[in-house]
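User: Could you check the structure of this?
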Amino acid sequence: MTKKNQHLTTSWGAPVGDNQHSMTAGSRGPTLIQDVHLLEKLAHFNRERVPERVVHAKGAGAHGYFEVTKDVTSYTKAAFLSDVGKRTPLFVRFSTVAGENGSADSVRDPRGFAVKFYTEEGNYDLVGNNTPVFFIRDAIKFPDFIHTQKRHPATHLKNPNAVWDFWSLSPESLHQVTILMSDRGIPATYRHMHGFSSHTFKWVNEDGDGVWVKYHFKTEQGIKNLTEEMGQRLAGENPDSHTEDLYNAIENGDYPAWRLYVQIMPLEDADTYRFDPFDVTKVWSQKDYPLQEVGRMVLDRNPENYFAEVEQATFSPGTLVPGIDVSPDKMLQGRLFAYHDAHRYRVGANHQALPINRPKADVHTYQRDGQMRFDNNGGGSVYYEPNSLNGPKESPQHKPAAYPVSGVADSVAYDQDDHYTQAGDLYRLLTKDERTRLISNIVGAMKPVESDEIKRRQIQHFYKADPEYGIRVAEGLGLSVPSKRK
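Assistant: Sure, the predicted structure tokens are below.
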């Protein structure tokens, strides 16, 4: 049993002053690499499972192409988006998040939605989910969050006490929790769900002008979901139902497709918008920033070997091409390090050279050696830079666009802490029947929680989003109804 009043420390025993906020340059960052506690947490977290993925372990994938349908060259100079009608080959991996490699496909869980574009300027990875938001907004909390989704260290059972304890102490999770517990929490198949970047990214055009963007993949198959009862039954009858459905659809020539749209925000709006546009627990209203069509993604070829293609596929939001850059989103900033580091550990330092990950574009680097180096390792060519031997050199025109930063280096929170408005708006958008199923799913998930204190703490969050929301959950759990918003 954990002793009371113990100080949280680093792995080398030093006390931790802030375990909730990463160190940034000013309130918006970017995140500072000198935050050694953040780096230690993320690096250790990436090495906690051998050899399956720490998250997104269970998944399915397919090959296809992306075709540009609208001219977006005024916003981005990315070459694969340069001409209407242009096609770029791609590989997609869909997945569940929390479960192990052998877990069921039909569990209540977000779905990973990762796309690798093999562009002429190198690979571009768009690594998102089937939800537009996430549970947390700072990468320093990610290892702790995923620990709550994994198994109890003593019982080796899933632990609802940990899940709801963490969520109740992290009110920023409320928006995503509402989505997860709604009908959208269990997609019927991978084909019948949308995909989102969730994070904000930056597009830059040939003139160096930038805009903030969010990506939306809209399924052409239509949205279909499973009820809790259907999901549980399918988990027992066919735990690989999503994997089987995707494979069979493509095998039968019923190629799944999605339309890609973006929301576009002028750079200056980030300072005045009513929600922080870099907070991944929030969405941008489509009334404020309407969806603009970009292109169409089609999946038309199954993998020939699951391990070689699906299991060894590696994705990272830091795999970028000219014309597409990152934002100060603190969760995204941490992922830029963590994803590449996870692949170096899980697959190897040369994972980018594997056939499924190898760019179609020529690669010229000074990286050498490492485990599983299976090409000619650069032969006898020059292996350092700068050099006077006509080796590859940087191209200044491809530098990311500069942006100003200011502030004091410190561990700071986001400026805005409204965790309830968007969750409440979502609740009120649901139909009467959808609300009833949402409440039923939440009550069923919270009943196993042993602590009434945790339940009441979470109920307060529901109540602050919408009084009816909190009252119905409280009544379902047989607890006192909150008398007022605290």
